[in-house]
Design goal:
The structure holds two protein chains of two kinds. Chain A is α/β, with parallel strands linked by helices. Chain A is built from twelve helices and 20 strands. In chain A, the strands form two sheets. In chain A, strands 1, 4, 5, 7, 9, 11, 13, 15, 17 and 19 form a ten-stranded mixed β-sheet that branches. In chain A, strands 3-2-6-8-10-12-14-16-18-20 form a ten-stranded mixed β-sheet, covered by helices on one side. In chain B, a hairpin with a 2-residue loop joins strand 3 and strand 4. The chains are: A alpha/beta, B alpha/beta. Chains A and B meet through strand 19 and strand 20 of A and strand 22, strand 23 and strand 24 of B.
């Protein structure tokens, strides 16, 4: 696309794309999904594609990403071969309910068995038709399309993704692993939408892995809504591992009720352009939220994390920790916000962002923010940017550890603050392994994968 | 429970305390009609008998200003300002040029006395040279001769325009260009007067220089402009303090301060700001939209800002340092207090450009009543700023459950050798701290005063002696009992 394409033209193009394909976009979805489109479209037309003049996107150049040429598909492709043969998760010990999603569409042949009674794991489109009651009570309820245009964009294009429902007081032992695959021989625009509902007293661990299987340009805009009911516990781990051509816009909206606990781990290991928007609303007393992020970027990658934690009720705790290692020409951004409403007394809210810059042309922008309207609170944030500690390096080298190894050890220790928060052991081990390889400059090639796409 | 009641009582008592510096001086003022257009600007320039380059500068600024919009990014609710409803020039009427104190309007002298400005005998005792600005025109400059012996120029801006046009033309607008922002452009177009300070090479200014700003005539916005130039190896400590009388109508204050520090020079700029904050219901009060910026142009130079902000209905102010010279240092120490319906969005910018530059930011915000207090700061490390070092600490103290405290730091790092640290906390005074004091026989009000002063100590310590005392008093007045 021409370089001087303006955001205005891009916006019009997307709106036209929607109108032209409205029939196929609406083909298989229920009323719940269709009903929010009108407002979302209106909001998007108002907001447009965020430029860097929009405060939340100050350090993220979305224009460039949207200006690329992509194809769009509005119906699921059916592969004759078994997708599970093409892609295998490389964590053999990790026993999960695997849910494959191909180019944004729920894989038609997912085999999910042995679920506790009442648990539903199915495609989003399917759920909107077959379980309208539960679905409509939650879908689109935690997203504010007026506030963020990526959310609005996702909401009117949304067709499919994964729906997970855990009934009251049910604990699901095996994590649910959603594997998002990008697999096509042409550049593709992908929209994914997930809805995860954990009713009160339930326990759930969701792992989301993002992979690209071909060296093509993908622009994915995914949105996940997570509802955690009273007393429920949810762990949400996201592992981003995509190629350098792809752009991933990932929006997560977490809504928590009283006494609930959510731990999220956002692990951005690889990807040309990553934007993570994480919105948390603590909507019940004594709710607890932990959001951890680790990003390792090199070459010309861009990684941007945006968090907003809203304390709406008293006695809630929140904790954010984002750590980044940037080398070569990588650029990173962190924009975190803690918002304490005027009724949210006795709030404890912490936020920390540490960054290591390893090369002269790496760049980091950090913007931690506090907005506080209640007085009986303890809130703090901290942000640092620096290098590896020379004294620590010297200490290690004086004990006979080679410089390269010593550097690696220090970086690994830096990253470990985030990794150690992952609750599932096998996943944690796997991430340690991935980070190890990543820091040594060779991100694990999927050993068992038949497409050695090469990141 | 008892203690809480006590606190509440003290809180109500003290938030009721009125602005203690509110009085209006009756002096005939020479004003021009309300409104803003090119003719008004020509008139201001003509009244001040300015050379052509100044008029050109003003007109250029005005034309640019007309293309600009009021900034909306700050965390402030600013009622619409009608720029045509403001008198842009008001000078106290002077009968003739004055040769001694006895010729100064006695009413004016009394005003300064009330403010504690040492215009007469006190000047020798306190050792403070005062360039008193009242309604835009410098009335009396003291110690000018003493300073002149050292080659220091300390005079009103308009005098400088006439007497040192080369220096003014060379430096004015180099740190804050007329295109910088909405209020800077406005100021550049209509600025009335201000202070000019030039410290020659190798001179250490023997006394603290000080200016008292004061808004007086009704409906007059005040547009000050200060320019400080510190030549190589020089040192100056500059004090600025202000109080304003009670007024019902909002008053606009859009000042510019420019500091230029050449090689090895050090400039310390301290401010105590106590403009009229409006009454308890948020009626009236001064709008304080100020652009303050210093540039460390030479190697090993240093600029240090220290401010105590207790007044103004709305404060929009970011004293900044551009660290261009290698090994240059920028410092920012701030205590900002907001009470009742005050709003403050203040902070700093530290722009690291040279090698081995250092900056420190210590900001203490205290919010009480229904006020909102934001810290907004930028630390930017440019591509070639090797070994830049920054430490920022921004704490907020909340006194009362209807106020807000916000922190918006921006960290932009483009050089891998930089070490940048930022930390911020928000909390209220711990009941255990108050209990500890009570237990030792200190009543709750004193305890709160003690704790707040301790909290702000790091900054107060940075103020020159003369100011530290006043600042502590101001903190007490502004906060008395608003602590809950």
């Amino acid at each position: 696309m021409a370089e001087n394409t303006t955001v205005g033209q891009l916006k019009e193009m997307l709106v036209r794309l929607y109108h032209d394909n409205k029939t196929s976009i609406d083909a298989n979805v229920g009323e719940g999904i269709r009903s929010v489109r009108g407002k979302a479209l209106g909001d998007f037309e108002k907001l447009g594609i965020p430029t860097r003049k929009v405060e939340a996107y100050r350090y993220t150049n979305l224009e460039k990403v949207f200006a690329e040429d992509y194809n769009a598909e509005f119906s699921a492709e059916r592969f004759k071969v078994d997708l599970r043969e093409i892609f295998k998760c490389e964590i053999p010990e990790l026993d999960t309910h695997v849910v494959l999603v191909l180019n944004g569409f729920y894989y038609h042949d997912n085999k999910i068995t042995g679920l506790p009674e009442g648990v539903i794991i199915t495609s989003l489109a399917q759920a909107s038709v077959s379980h309208p009651g539960i679905f409509n009570a939650h879908y689109g309820k935690y997203v504010n399309t007026e506030e963020d245009s990526l959310a609005a964009l996702n909401s009117f294009f949304a067709q499919d993704g994964v729906f997970v429902y855990i009934p009251e007081h049910v604990k699901i032992d095996k994590p649910v692993q959603i594997i998002n695959l990008c697999f096509s021989y042409k550049n593709l625009r992908i929209t994914r939408r997930n809805l995860i509902v954990a009713e009160k007293g339930s326990e759930l661990h969701v792992i989301v892995c993002d992979h690209t299987l071909c060296r093509r340009k993908y622009l994915s805009n995914s949105l996940t809504e997570i509802y955690t009911g009273a007393n429920a516990k949810t762990e949400y781990s996201k592992v981003q591992n995509e190629n350098n051509l792809s752009a991933q816009l990932s929006n997560t909206y977490i809504h928590q009720e009283a006494d609930s606990k959510v731990v999220s781990n956002i692990l951005s290991l690889h990807g040309g352009f990553i934007r993570n928007n994480i919105f948390v609303k603590l909507n019940g007393e004594r709710a607890e939220n932990h959001t951890y992020g680790l990003f390792i970027s090199d070459s010309n990658q861009h990684i941007s994390n945006y968090t907003s934690v809203l304390h709406a009720k008293p006695y809630c705790n929140s904790n954010q920790l984002f750590k980044g290692i940037l080398s070569e020409n990588a650029t990173g951004a962190f924009n975190g916000k803690i918002y304490v409403g005027k009724d949210a007394q006795k709030t404890l809210a912490y936020q920390k962002n540490n960054n290591i810059l390893l090369s002269p042309s790496a760049r980091m922008n950090s913007k931690p923010q506090l907005e506080i309207y209640a007085d009986d609170v303890k809130c703090s944030h901290g942000a640092t940017a620096g290098q590896l500690d020379e004294d620590a390096l010297f200490y290690l080298r004086s004990r006979g550890i080679r410089e390269a190894e010593a550097r690696f050890l220090l970086m690994y220790a830096f990253a470990n603050d985030v990794i150690s928060n992952i609750g599932t052991r096998h996943l944690r081990d796997r991430i340690i392994d991935l980070v190890d390889k990543r820091l040594r400059g060779k991100l694990s090639k999927c050993n068992e994968c038949e497409i050695h796409c090469g990141n | 429970m008892k203690m809480e009641n006590d606190q509440d009582k003290i809180l109500t008592e003290l938030t009721k305390s009125d602005y203690k510096y509110g009085f209006v001086t009756d002096i005939e003022t020479d004003t021009i009609p309300k409104g803003l257009n090119e003719n008004v600007i020509r008139m201001i320039s003509a009244k001040k008998k300015e050379p052509d380059y100044m008029l050109d500068f003003r007109l250029k600024s005005f034309r640019h200003w007309q293309t600009m919009k009021m900034p909306e990014w700050a965390h402030l609710v600013i009622p619409e300002i009608n720029y045509q409803d403001i008198i842009y020039y008001a000078a106290p009427k002077q009968k003739a040029s004055l040769s001694g104190l006895n010729e100064v309007d006695p009413e004016l002298l009394r005003t300064f006395d009330k403010l504690g400005i040492p215009l007469d005998e006190q000047k020798r005792l306190t050792g403070v040279a005062v360039d008193a600005v009242m309604d835009s025109v410098s009335v009396k400059t003291t110690f000018r001769e003493t300073l002149a012996e050292l080659g220091i120029i300390f005079c009103s801006f308009s005098d400088a325009v006439r007497e040192h046009p080369d220096l003014v033309e060379k430096y004015m607008g180099t740190v804050v260009p007329y295109t910088d922002n909405f209020f800077a452009s406005l100021n550049s177009a209509v600025f009335s007067d201000g202070s000019f300070c030039y410290i020659p090479r190798g001179v250490r200014c023997p006394m603290e220089l000080s200016t008292y700003f004061r808004i007086n005539a009704a409906n007059t916005g005040q547009f000050e402009r200060t320019l400080i130039i510190a030549e190589e190896d020089s040192y100056v400590s500059y004090l600025e303090g202000c109080t304003a009388p009670m007024r019902d109508e909002h008053q606009l204050h859009a000042a510019i301060v420019e500091i230029i520090a050449l090689e090895n020079a050090e400039v310390k700029y301290s401010t105590v700001q106590n403009w009229y904050p409006g009454d308890k219901n948020g009626k009236g009060g001064v709008y304080n939209f100020v652009t303050k910026r210093g540039i460390c142009r030479g190697d090993h130079s240093k600029i240090s800002w220290a401010q105590v902000e207790t007044g103004s209905a709305i404060t929009w102010k970011y004293p900044s340092c551009i660290l261009k010279g290698n090994h240059s240092t920028g410092e920012f120490y701030s205590v900002a207090v907001t009470n009742n319906h005050q709003q403050a969005d203040t902070g700093t910018k530290m722009i690291h450009i040279g090698r081995n530059t250092k900056s420190t930011i210590i900001s203490k915000g205290i919010s009480a009543g229904k006020s909102n207090n934001s810290y907004r700061g930028l630390v930017k490390v440019g591509k070639n700023a090797q070994n830049a070092r920054n430490f920022s600490q921004c704490d907020s103290l909340l006194l009362g459950d209807k106020c807000g405290a916000h922190t918006f730091p921006y960290l932009e790092v483009e050089n891998e050798s930089a070490i940048i640290e930022h930390e911020a906390t928000t909390s209220r005074i711990g009941e255990d701290q108050i209990f500890y004091c009570n237990q030792r026989g200190i009543d709750t009000e004193k305890a709160i005063g003690l704790i707040v002063n301790g909290y702000a100590r790091e900054v107060l310590n940075k103020l020159p002696m003369e100011f530290a005392v006043e600042a502590q008093k101001l903190l007490q007045i502004s906060l008395e009992g608003s602590v809950g």
